[in-house]
Every structure is written in structure tokens, then in C-alpha cells.
């Protein structure tokens, strides 16, 4: 939580320094981006007017680049592993410093004289002897507080250097030193004592030894002190938190101590409040019974409702963890804890203007609705909580309405289209130009075959969104949106509600069964209002209908345009393997006609300023780009530009390396346009015979080859400042020459030119360089490997002979060739590319580095989505035994075809895999079927909770994509794809065993191991049932009915969720849909009647059938607490009895002031009662058994004399008092059973 603890050691200091450096780096990056944008804007203006300003901007840009480089180096230095620090300084002037071996009188020059001497001394020291010296030094009394702090720090440093030493501590001796330090009047000494004790903790037995020192009393005393003792309070709290770092240590935290932590968490002005909230949340997960008994749930709920906690998702997650199973959620109140979050929206008077509270509660509610247990909890009581959220949109409060709409966009995972900003701003959507850029919005990884479409249909995220959408429709979302559209005075809010209504209508038609979506599409209330011709309000309804229709038509055009773009991309084989330059060219808009007349063309050439000046800054590059992409494609215009005028000559001269014009331009984002136009010019020249001839005779390629020769050791050419040095590649546009060479490599004529200047020979020699990975990546990443020749040989050499990073980089380059979209035609160039790439990928499976092998496996697995590629991979007969689990997904792909099945059968892989998936592994007590459950749940959680943004992907290296929320390959699903696999599955009888396990243990609610087994069996059944050949297995048993029963009646929320998703898998097949229809479930289908794999019950309430439960109050615990309070509040001494009665009433806020005044007057009389250890123990028992605010606790403890604590901790009171005190010392000695009386 960012607390400034007093024992900040080097690690914490390094973290702060690292955070500061990262902040500075982010600022410099923003300055750099701003300078680049300003420079790009200045380039569009006249050079004379902006010359001075451009110089200043370039200076600022260079300065930012230097600072960024320096900051990165400093960050890397801090992130390197460091040796143990010699000294650490906290905020109390080095209070907890280290390196006690250094004498106090040593001067700085002696400190730095010999580092080796210090290390040798550290290695040669005797840990036990040093420990004895430190403990003996701590025996001295009457010393200054800094003396004890220094010795305690020395002991901590000793335990850090020798971690095993703490296991040999003699607690009878060490414990006495701890007690004396914790009883000190100096807060610094007490803090050092807590820190020293914390580093001595080893296991649960050591915690018990520590508690036998009566440290619970001391911790409570430290926690309730005022803020001026912050260093002591911080260390005491860290000491309590250290208990949770030990296995089973949370069970050693007494309820009395936890009550003190709860009191701090309730005190809104306490600086330790948030760290106490975190502590309570962790205990809620580890030991909910202890937290509930200490009253710790209330502060967690309060801080959630207040919206003051920085990460409400973490607190909500702690509650959701308890709701999962009946034996854990019995400590909570039937979901009421989470319902209070919705009050922020249903009480507009309280939240009016409090945007932070609304936003925090919205984040918490979004977290709830993105988990299965959270959705079930808020859907209890007939969707009461969700109905209250939806009904809040009826309040005429724009801020609440807008926040709820944003929440719905997030929960339903609706990404607003690109034209949404224009629509919300009030612009019309009648022009088709609004969806002109839809191609860029489409997925960067479009489905390339029916197999990938099948994968997208299996998205668990969409299935989950289906049920969330159905729940919101059940809660009345559609009517609430219509009300916002009709009544809201805010035009932007109206349009946002209209956009959301259009999106959810589209989702309903695509994801929900027709029985749900049919009635939702009609909008009967809106049409009824619009048809009342005598009503003046009908015009509002009519306008709403028009807006909804406009949005729907635009959304439909969006889908159509995206679909057409995908079809075009699949048909055009020539654009299948585009380089980055070609991909950008494809997006460019050519506005100039190719067949323009000569006079117009000459006028355009003059307008570019290329013919008038050699200063390229004055050239109009936008117009040059249009001319290169347009008129220059005409042979006549090309001849004229080459022979008639100097247009092409001056352009190519600008790019010649030894002119030092293009090659000296800074490598910034705006300047990348020079690279793009250069690649476009080369591409245009290659399309024309005159352009090819000119390019052959030009000096451009010759000079590029000469620059490459500087890095070829066989050429004999050298240069004091080579053009392709690491610094120039990073800082200038010299890297653009490799993109130009990549454009040449995409054409046979360009390859011939490269061969003429022996560029390939130089590439072969450059690949052998060991210290120029940047140069190798620039070469390999920009070449086009479509044609068979030198470049493929070069890539194969890089795949095997270069460094690890280059091998991984080159392996990733093969993805776009191995996963090409071409059909399996013998004449298809794309098919040949795929086979060539697959052969190289199979070779990479035998790379000595596992990471390279893993990358190759993932690419091959993606390539196997196409049947012809899968058959070719099997034909290569790769051996994957040496890869173990890494190669398992690829082997599963082989099972989907008969050829692959027979190949794996020959290797005896199938029988071994069946045993691994079916039987329990003795090593980790989990088979692959159980591990599969963990993988699916982790993937679904990651998909639901990560931001649904555009994935960033480098077009050069073809980095892999991660499909979260997709059902991963399952052995039994792949086995069921072939008749041979189905026959083997029937012979083994595994499906019958899975069905029997589901039938016998499906309603289990306590044993986590059995629940895991049932989940694994359900996933296996669902994957088998999703295949067409799996029909006989489903029909031979009633397993589908059992899974439906689990989904509707199970008390374990995780089992209900798994059953729901498994039923979605089963609904993908025709026979599965029929069986589900008999069970009262309906599935969504396409217009052709094909199932898409999403199903919900006809009666939605059957799925959300969690019944309220009775909270466990712990009758035995209550009886014990009552008995303890009865003993604690009675005393033979009338004065003690009166004091205890007033202490009891301090918990009553009405009587607080009166009783505190009476106790203060008794304290002023200096009665001997406040020195009685027995009375103090009784007061501490009352503080544990009942709720008291932090000021009241502090007041009560301050009433007693300081000598009382010393008597109790050191057991200095008389035997008779101790014997009597044992009867009242309750929770302090037993954290589990505060009601047991000794």
C-alpha cells in the first residue's frame, strides 16, 4: 500500500528508486512522442517559416532520446541481481542499518579500501559466536536507545547472511532479550525488537514459542498507540503479518490481536488503515472463521462501499472465494455482503457528485459479474441486486446513468465501433464512408479456415456473455434503456443508450436462442408509444426508433464490410504474404488517376517541388506518395519521369546512402514516411521495364551493397564509420534500406539485381557475425521468402547457426508462411511456401534450446488447423518424445486424421496418452484430465478479466497470439474425430467410467479432490459429445441428464459453471441439441439451423438456483464468549467490579462519554486497582470478546500503570495472582478457542 515503514532496507529503497526511474522514463517517452508529432506537423508547413522552430524541436527530441537511453541503462542496472546490501537507511536517519561488522570509527576511505577484505571477513566469521556476542550485548541496561537498535540491526543482518542460524536459537535466552526490548519505553527500541523477532520466525513452532513470551499483550499495546509512535505500530503490524507467511501461521493469530487490527481498520483517519484492510482480506481467505469471530467482515464491506480502497477488485475477490463452496460461505450472510455495492447507484442523493465512489463501486460490480460465483450470488432472490442496478437508470441522474452504461459495455464485453465517437457527438450515420475503415477494425488474425471458425465458436467467454446478457434481459435491461432514450435530456447519453441497445440486440440475435431473442427484437413498448398519434410524446419514440434503426443498419454494414474484406484477403493470393511495407501500401488511398494526361502530370511534378529544389524538406511528400502510387504506374508517365524530367533521378538520389540525406535523417515516427515512399518507389519501378532498366543502371543498389560490404569480413572493405553500425541503425533511417531490399526480394527482377551486386554473398557472411543481432534482425525480418532461392537458404542458416534470440526470431518469421490461407493445390505457391516452412519448423523441433522448440511447436499447432498442412506435418514424421509436455498439443492435433492416428499408433503414443489422461499420476496425484481443468479455468479467468483491447503484434516477426477463453485441445475430443479413435475409446471403456463418476459424485460439495475429478470427467464427456461421432456415447448413457442436474442443483458454484460450459460443448452437435431439448435447455443456432455451441435453460431461474443459507453463528463459541464475559465482568473487589462495569459500557456509544469521564476520575485518584494484573487481564478479555473502537481501546489500556505490563510479560506477579489470573486469561493464550478456561 506504499507505507513508509521504518525498516526500509536496500530492497525497498531499490524498488522506490526503480519506480522513480520508470516515472521519469514515461515522462521522457511522452515528451519524445510530443516532439515527433510536432515535428510531423511542422514538416507540412513552409520550411523557411518553421526552420528555427524545427531546430528547437529536433534538439528537444535528441535530448529526450539521450535521457531515455540513460534511464534505461539505470533501470537495467537496478534490476540486476545485487549482493546483500552493506547498509540500509530508513526514514529515521538510518535507524535500521546493516553491516555491523564495520567498526563505528572506521573512516570512509577505509570502508572503500578493500571490498574483498570485508567479504573475506564475512565468510570467515563464526555465526554462533557472533550471535552470542550480540545477545550478550543486549543484556546491558541503561544504554541509549540507538545502542539497542544497532545491536538488533546487527542481529537481523546476521540472520540474513546465515538463514539457517535462526533454527538453532535458544528461545529461553533469545526470548528474554525480545521481552526486554518490547517492554522498553523507547518506541525505536520496541520497533527494533519486533523486527528482530520477525526475522527469527521459522515455522509454526517458532510462532508458538513467540506467543509463550506473552507478545500478544505487547502487540495489542503497540497497535493502539497514537500516531506519533508510528514506527512502533508499523513494526507491530508487520510482525502480525509475518504470521501469515508461515504455513499454518494464521491459526496462531489470536482473536484479541485481530480485534485490535479490526479497530484500526475501522478508524478512517489512521494511516495504517489500508494495510490493515489488506491484512483482514488475506485472513478472510485463509481463515474466515477467525475473521468473522473478530468482527472483521464489517470494515471490509465499509471500505468497499466508501470507494476509498484503491483496488476494490481484490477485496471482492476475497469474498467471491468464500462463496465458492457451502462449507466456506456459511460464514457470510447469503450474499448480502456484495449487495451493498449496488447502493451507490440506487441512492442518487448520497452519490450525487461523488464520481470516485461510483467508479470504484462500478469496478467492484464488474469484477463480480465477471466471475461465475459472483453472477450466481447477485442473481439470488430472483435477480434482486441486478434489478436494482437496472432500475437505477430510471433516476433522472445523468452521471449514474452514464456510469451504468459504461459498466454494461464492460461486463458484456462490447467494444464500441470506430464510428461510435462520431455518433455520440451527434453526427449522422447515413453515409457509407462511416464504415470505410472497418478492415482495420477486423481481427488482425482473421479466421483462415473452417477449423478456426470452429475454434471461435468454442469461445467460453462468448458463452459466458450469453448467460450474462440473458440475466440482464431478465432484470429488465431493455425497458430501462428505452426509458433512458425517451426521457434523458442529455443527447450524448441518449445516443450511448441507443448504441448499447443496438449492440445487445445484435448480440441477442447471434448468441441467444430464438425463444429469447425473438421477443426482444420487437420493442413492443416503443412501437406502441410511437403509434399513439394523438400523443405529443410520440415524436420522441419515433426519433428513438429511427436512431435504433440507423445504428442497426450501420452495425450490419460493419459486419458485411468486414466479411467482404476477409473474402478478398483470402482470394488474393498475391497479398497473402505481404511484407510490412506492402501491408501499409494496401491501406493507402490512391486518389490520383493512373491514366492522367501529360500536362496534368507535369503540373503535379512541378507542385511536388522536387524539380525546383534539392532540399527534400521543401518537397511535398504526400503528393509524391500519390504520384508514385498512381500516375507512375503508367508506362508513358514513367518514361517521362525518367527521361523527360529529373523527378525519378532526384528521388533515387535522395535515397542513395553516400548522399547522406536519407541515411542521416533521425529515426522518428513521422520520418517513417520517407521509408514507406522509398519502398513504394522501388515497387513501382519494378512493375515497369523502363523502371527496371533505370534501377539496374542507378547507383542506389551499388552503394547499398558497398555499405553491406563494410560488415563482410571477406570483402576487404572497411570504414571508420560504417553506415549500418548499431548506433546508426537505432538513431537514423538506415534500417529503411533493408525494407527497400525486402521490396526487391518480393520480385524476381529485384532478386536478380540483388544477385548481380552479390548482396546474397554478403548476407551469408553477415549471418556469421556473433555480436550484431540487431543487424541480423533487420535483414531477416524485412526479406520476402516467397520465392525459392538464396533467401530461404539464408533463413535456414539463421535457424540453426545463430544465437538463441535470432533462432527464436527466425522461427517466428515462419508463422505467416506455415499458416498461409491458400488451398491445398499442387500449383499453389502458397501451398509450396507452407510445406517449405513446415519442413524448417520440424527441423526446429530438435533445437538444443527448449524455448526454440516450444515456439516451433506452437506455430506447427496453428498450421495444423488446415487439413493439408496437418497431413504434411504427419508426413514429415516428427519425433517429439524428447519434448515431453511441450510437444503434447501437437501430437493431439495428429489424432484428428486417420493418417495421424495410424502414425501415433505405430509410436504407441495413443495407449500411453490414454493412461496419462485417465489414470492418476503418482508423482503429483493429478492426471492430465485434472490438469486440463486448471488450464481451462485459468484461461477463462484471464480472458474475462483482461482488457479487451486490440492485441499488439509485430508484423515482422509474426509473434504468436494467445487465445484466452478458447477450449484447449482435449485428448478425447481429438480421439473422437476418427472412427478408429471412437472404436478404441469404446474398447477401453473410459467414457463409461467418466459417466459413472459424474453420476456417483456429481453432487459432492465438500471434498475439493472429488470436485476436481468430477470437473475433469465433465470436460472429457463434453469434448466427446461435441463431435459428430460422439453421438453413440451420449445416447448409451444418461450422462447429459446428470450434467444438467449438476448445473441446476449443485451447491458448488464452480461445478455449476463447469457443467454450464460443458453443456455448451455438447450442444454443438445435433444429437446433443436434441438431448438438451428434452432436458429443458435451448441452444442458439445460425440462420441455417447449425448450432454455435451456446445454450441456456428455457427457464433461466433453474440455472440460478442457489438458495439462501443460514449463517453459522457458532453456538459453542457464543456460549464460551458469554461465559468469559461473565467471569471477566465480575470481581470480589467492589471497586474492580465498578471499573469492569464501566469498561463494559464503553462499547456503547451512548454511554461512552459518561463512562470515560468516570474512569478518568478514578484514574486521577491514583487507585491501586489500576496496578492490578488480574484486573488488566479481565479488561483485555473484554476487549477481545466485544467490539470497541480504537480510541476506547487506547483509553482503557492507558488507564493502567506501565508496571502492570511488565509484571504480566515477565510473570513477576505473585503465584496466587497468577493462579487466579489463569482463570481469566482467555483468548490471549489460545487463538482458536477463546472460551476455554484453564
UniProtKB/TrEMBL annotation:
SUPFAM superfamilies: ARM repeat (SSF48371), HR1 repeat (SSF46585)
Signal found in the keyword field: no
Coiled-coil region(s): none
PROSITE patterns linked to this entry: REM_1 (PS51860)
Descriptive protein name: REM-1 domain-containing protein
GO cellular component, one term: TORC2 complex
PANTHER family: CYTOSOLIC REGULATOR PIANISSIMO, RAPAMYCIN-INSENSITIVE COMPANION OF MTOR
Region spans: Disordered: 42-68, 1216-1238
GO biological process, one term: TORC2 signaling
Bias-annotated ranges (Basic and acidic residues): 49-59
Keyword list, A-Z: Coiled coil
InterPro entries for the chain: ARM-like (IPR011989), ARM-type_fold (IPR016024), HR1_rho-bd (IPR011072), HR1_rpt_sf (IPR036274), Pianissimo_fam (IPR028268), Pianissimo_N (IPR028267), Rictor_IV (IPR029453), RICTOR_M (IPR029451)
Domain REM-1: 4-84
Ranges annotated as biased composition (Polar residues): 1227-1238
Amino acid at each position: 500500500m506504499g507505507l513508509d515503514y521504518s525498516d526500509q532496507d536496500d530492497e525497498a529503497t531499490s524498488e522506490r528508486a526503480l519506480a522513480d526511474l520508470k516515472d521519469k522514463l514515461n515522462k521522457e517517452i511522452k515528451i519524445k512522442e510530443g516532439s515527433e508529432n510536432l515535428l510531423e506537423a511542422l514538416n507540412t508547413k513552409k520550411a523557411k517559416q518553421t526552420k528555427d522552430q524545427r531546430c528547437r524541436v529536433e534538439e528537444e527530441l535528441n535530448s529526450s532520446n539521450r535521457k531515455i537511453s540513460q534511464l534505461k541503462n539505470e533501470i537495467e542496472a537496478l534490476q540486476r541481481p545485487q549482493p546483500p546490501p552493506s547498509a540500509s537507511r530508513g526514514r529515521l536517519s538510518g535507524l535500521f542499518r546493516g553491516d555491523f561488522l564495520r567498526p563505528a570509527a572506521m573512516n570512509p576511505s577505509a570502508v572503500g579500501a578493500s571490498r574483498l577484505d570485508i567479504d573475506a571477513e564475512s565468510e570467515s566469521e563464526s555465526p554462533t559466536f557472533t550471535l552470542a556476542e550480540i545477545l550478550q550485548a543486549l543484556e546491558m541496561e541503561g544504554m541509549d536507545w540507538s545502542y539497542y537498535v544497532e545491536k538488533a540491526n546487527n542481529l537481523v543482518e546476521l540472520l540474513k547472511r546465515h538463514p539457517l542460524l535462526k533454527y538453532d536459537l535458544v528461545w529461553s535466552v533469545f526470548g528474554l532479550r525480545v521481552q526486554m526490548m518490547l517492554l522498553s519505553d523507547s518506541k525505536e527500541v520496541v520497533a527494533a525488537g519486533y523486527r528482530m523477532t520477525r526475522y527469527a520466525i521459522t515455522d509454526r513452532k517458532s510462532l508458538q514459542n513467540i506467543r509463550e513470551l506473552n507478545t500478544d499483550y505487547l502487540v495489542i499495546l503497540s497497535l493502539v498507540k497514537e500516531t506519533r509512535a508510528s514506527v512502533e505500530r508499523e513494526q507491530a503490524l508487520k510482525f502480525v503479518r509475518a504470521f501469515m507467511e508461515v504455513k499454518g501461521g494464521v491459526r496462531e493469530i489470536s482473536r484479541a490481536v485481530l480485534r485490535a487490527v479490526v479497530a484500526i481498520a475501522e478508524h478512517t483517519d489512521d494511516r495504517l488503515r489500508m494495510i490493515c484492510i489488506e491484512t483482514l482480506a488475506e485472513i478472510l481467505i485463509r481463515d474466515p472463521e477467525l475473521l468473522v469471530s473478530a468482527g472483521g467482515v464489517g470494515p471490509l464491506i465499509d471500505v468497499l462501499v466508501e470507494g476509498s480502497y484503491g483496488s476494490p477488485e481484490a477485496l471482492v475477490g476475497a469474498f467471491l472465494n468464500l462463496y465458492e463452496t457451502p462449507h466456506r460461505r456459511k460464514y457470510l450472510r447469503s450474499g448480502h455482503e456484495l449487495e451493498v455495492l449496488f447502493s451507490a447507484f440506487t441512492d442518487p442523493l448520497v452519490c450525487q457528485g461523488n464520481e470516485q465512489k461510483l467508479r470504484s463501486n462500478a469496478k467492484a460490480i464488474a469484477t463480480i459479474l465477471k466471475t461465475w460465483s459472483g453472477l450466481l450470488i447477485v442473481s439470488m432472490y430472483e435477480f434482486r441486486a441486478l434489478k436494482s442496478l437496472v432500475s437505477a437508470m430510471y433516476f433522472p441522474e445523468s452521471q449514474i446513468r452514464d456510469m451504468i452504461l459504461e459498466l454494461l459495455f464492460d461486463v458484456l464485453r462490447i467494444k464500441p465501433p470506430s464510428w461510435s465517437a462520431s455518433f455520440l457527438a451527434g453526427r449522422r450515420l447515413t453515409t457509407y464512408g462511416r464504415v470505410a475503415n472497418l478492415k482495420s477494425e477486423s481481427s488482425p488474425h482473421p479466421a483462415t479456415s473452417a477449423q478456426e471458425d470452429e475454434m471461435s465458436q468454442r469461445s467460453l467467454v462468448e458463452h459466458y456473455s450469453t448467460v450474462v446478457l440473458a440475466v440482464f434481459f431478465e432484470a429488465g435491461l431493455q425497458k430501462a434503456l428505452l426509458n433512458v432514450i425517451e426521457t434523458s435530456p442529455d443527447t450524448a447519453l441518449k445516443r450511448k443508450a441507443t448504441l448499447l441497445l443496438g449492440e445487445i440486440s445484435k448480440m441477442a440475435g447471434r448468441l441467444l436462442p430464438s425463444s429469447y431473442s425473438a421477443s426482444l427484437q420487437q420493442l413492443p413498448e416503443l412501437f406502441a408509444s410511437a403509434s399513439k398519434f394523438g400523443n405529443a410524446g410520440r415524436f420522441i419514440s419515433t426519433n428513438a426508433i429511427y436512431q435504433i434503426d440507423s445504428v442497426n443498419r450501420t452495425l450490419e454494414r460493419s459486419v458485411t464490410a468486414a466479411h467482404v474484406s476477409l473474402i478478398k484477403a483470402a482470394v488474393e493470393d498475391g497479398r497473402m504474404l505481404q511484407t510490412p511495407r506492402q501491408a501499409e501500401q494496401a491501406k493507402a488511398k490512391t486518389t490520383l488517376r493512373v491514366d492522367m494526361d501529360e500536362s496534368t502530370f507535369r503540373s503535379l511534378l512541378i507542385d511536388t517541388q522536387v524539380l525546383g529544389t534539392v532540399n527534400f524538406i521543401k518537397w511535398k511528400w504526400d503528393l509524391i506518395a500519390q504520384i508514385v502510387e498512381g500516375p507512375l504506374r503508367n508506362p508513358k508517365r514513367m518514361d517521362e519521369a525518367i527521361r523527360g524530367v529529373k523527378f525519378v533521378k532526384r528521388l533515387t538520389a535522395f535515397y542513395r546512402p553516400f548522399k547522406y540525406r536519407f541515411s542521416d535523417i533521425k529515426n522518428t515516427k513521422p520520418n517513417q514516411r520517407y521509408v514507406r515512399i522509398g519502398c513504394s518507389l522501388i515497387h513501382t519501378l519494378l512493375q515497369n521495364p523502363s523502371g527496371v532498366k533505370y534501377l539496374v543502371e542507378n547507383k542506389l543498389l551499388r552503394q547499398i551493397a558497398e555499405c553491406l560490404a563494410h560488415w563482410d569480413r571477406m570483402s576487404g572493405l572497411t570504414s571508420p564509420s560504417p553506415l549500418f553500425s548499431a548506433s546508426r541503425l537505432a538513431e537514423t533511417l538506415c534500417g529503411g534500406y533493408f525494407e527497400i531490399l525486402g521490396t526487391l526480394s518480393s520480385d524476381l527482377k529485384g532478386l536478380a539485381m540483388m544477385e548481380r551486386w552479390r548482396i546474397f554473398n554478403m548476407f551469408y557472411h553477415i549471418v556469421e557475425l556473433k555480436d550484431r543481432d540487431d543487424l541480423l534482425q533487420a535483414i531477416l525480418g524485412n526479406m520476402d521468402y516467397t520465392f525459392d532461392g538464396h533467401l530461404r537458404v539464408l533463413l535456414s542458416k539463421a535457424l540453426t547457426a545463430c544465437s538463441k534470440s535470432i533462432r527464436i526470431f527466425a522461427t517466428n518469421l515462419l508463422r505467416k508462411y506455415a499458416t498461409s490461407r491458400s488451398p491445398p493445390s499442387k500449383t499453389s505457391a502458397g501451398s509450396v511456401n507452407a510445406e517449405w516452412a513446415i519442413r524448417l519448423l520440424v527441423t526446429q523441433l530438435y533445437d538444443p534450446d527448449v524455448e526454440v522448440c516450444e515456439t516451433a511447436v506452437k506455430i506447427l499447432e496453428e498450421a495444423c488447423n488446415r487439413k493439408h498442412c496437418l497431413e504434411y506435418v504427419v508426413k514429415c514424421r516428427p519425433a517429439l518424445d524428447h519434448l515431453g509436455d511441450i510437444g503434447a498439443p501437437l501430437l493431439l492435433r495428429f489424432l484428428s486424421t486417420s493418417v495421424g492416428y495410424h502414425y501415433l499408433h505405430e509410436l504407441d503414443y495413443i495407449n500411453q496418452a490414454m493412461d496419462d489422461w485417465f489414470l492418476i499420476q503418482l508423482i503429483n496425484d493429478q492426471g492430465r484430465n485434472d490438469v486440463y481443468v486448471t488450464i481451462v479455468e485459468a484461461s477463462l479467468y484471464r480472458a474475462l478479466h483482461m482488457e479487451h483491447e486490440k492485441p499488439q503484434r509485430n508484423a515482422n516477426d509474426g509473434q504468436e497470439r494467445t487465445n484466452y477463453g478458447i477450449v484447449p485441445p482435449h485428448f478425447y475430443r481429438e480421439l473422437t474425430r476418427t472412427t478408429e479413435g471412437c472404436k478404441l475409446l469404446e474398447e477401453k471403456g473410459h467414457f463409461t467410467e467418466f459417466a459413472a463418476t459424474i453420476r456417483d459424485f456429481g453432487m459432492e460439495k465438500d471434498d475439493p479432490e472429488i470436485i476436481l475429478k468430477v470437473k475433469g470427467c465433465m470436460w472429457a464427456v463434453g469434448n466427446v459429445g461435441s463431435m459428430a461421432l460422439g453421438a453413440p456415447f451420449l445416447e448409451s448413457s444418461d450422462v447429459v441428464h446428470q450434467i444438467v442436474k449438476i448445473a441446476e442443483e449443485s451447491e458448488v458454484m464452480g461445478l455449476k459453471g463447469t457443467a454450464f460450459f460443458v453443456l455448451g460443448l455438447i450442444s454443438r452437435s445435433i444429437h446433443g441439441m436434441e438431448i438438451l431439448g428434452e432436458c429443458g435447455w435451448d441452444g442458439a443456432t445460425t440462420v441455417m439451423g447449425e448450432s454455435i455451441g451456446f445454450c441456456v435453460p428455457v427457464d433461466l431461474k433453474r440455472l440460478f438456483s442457489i438458495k439462501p443459507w443460514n449463517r453459522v453463528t457458532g453456538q459453542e463459541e457464543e456460549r464460551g464468549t458469554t461465559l468469559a464475559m461473565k467471569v471477566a465482568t465480575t470481581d470480589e473487589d467492589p471497586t474492580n467490579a465498578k471499573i469492569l462495569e464501566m469498561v463494559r459500557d464503553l462499547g456503547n456509544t451512548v454511554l461512552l462519554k459518561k463512562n470515560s469521564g468516570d474512569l478518568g476520575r478514578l484514574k486521577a485518584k491514583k487507585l491501586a486497582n489500576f496496578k492490578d494484573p488480574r484486573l488488566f487481564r479481565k479488561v483485555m478479555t473484554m476487549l477481545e470478546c466485544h467490539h470497541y473502537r480504537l480510541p476506547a481501546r487506547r483509553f482503557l489500556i492507558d488507564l493502567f500503570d506501565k508496571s502492570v505490563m511488565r509484571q504480566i510479560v515477565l510473570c513477576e506477579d505473585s503465584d496466587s495472582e497468577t493462579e487466579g489470573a489463569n482463570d481469566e486469561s482467555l483468548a490471549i493464550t489460545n487463538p482458536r478457542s477463546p472460551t476455554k478456561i484453564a
